[in-house]
Amino acid sequence: MTTAPIGWPLLPVPDEQGRLSYPKTLAESVRESIRLLLTVEPGSLLMHPAFGAGLEAYLQSPNTLTLRRRLRDDVLESLDRWEPRIEVDYVDVFEPDDDAGHLRVEIGYRLVRTGEPQSIGVTLDLEG
User: Fold this and answer.
1) What pLDDT does residue 119 have?
2) % helix, strand, coil for the chain, step of 5
3) Is residue 95 part of a domain?
4) CB-based contact 88:75 (threshold 8 Å)
5) CATH, residue 73
6) 12 within a domain of the structure (yes/no)
7) Largest CA distance in the chain
8) Bridge partners of 91?
9) Percent of the chain, pLDDT > 90?
10) CA gyration radius for the chain?
11) Quick check: is 6 in a domain?
12) Considering the domain boundaries, does residue 79 fall inside one?
C-alpha cells in the first residue's frame, strides 16, 4: 500500500538552532501547502511558474459576481493541479457579514489517504 507523503515544506525556514522541521502530520502538511498555494502568485517560483492561485491579484478589485466566480475557479484549478493529497468538497467565495469590502474564501476538502474532512479559509480585504 502506497501512502501519500507528508511533504517537504515549500519555503523551509530554520529554527534558532539552524534545524529544518517537517510538518508533524499529513493534515498539517496539506494545510500548509494550501495556504502557500493560495498566496503564491503564478510566475513567482522559478521551477514551477504555473504554481499558485495568486489571491493577491484580486486585491483592489471591485466586488462583483464575476470576480467571485473567477476567484473560485482559480482556487479550484490550483487545488486540482497542485494538491493531489486532497479531494475538494467545495470552494465558497462570499461576503462575510454583508461587508462588500471583504471576501471570504472557504475550502472544504478530504484527505485522500484517510478520508478525514478538513477546511481552511482566508479573508481578502478588497479595499486596502
Assistant:
1) 96
2) 30, 20, 50
3) yes
4) no
5) 3.10.450.40
6) no
7) 49
8) 107
9) 38
10) 16
11) no
12) yes
* Beta partners for residue 106, in sequence order: 92, 121
| Cell representation of residue 91 | 470552494
Q: What percent of the chain has pLDDT over 70?
A: 87
At 1, the pLDDT band (50, 70, 90 cuts) reads very low
Show the beta-strand stretches assigned E in 7-125: 86-94, 102-111, 117-125
CB burial of residue 57 (10 Å; 0-12, 13-18, 19+):
middle
Which pLDDT tens digit goes with each residue over 48-89? 888 888 888 888 788 889 989 999 999 999 999 999 999 999
Residue identified by cell 504554481 is: 51
What single-letter amino acid sits at 107?
A: I
In the chain, how many domains are there? 1
Residue 34 has pLDDT above 90, yes or no: yes
- The whole domain housing 94 covers 26-125
Among all chains, which residue has been given the C-alpha cell 482566508?
A: 122
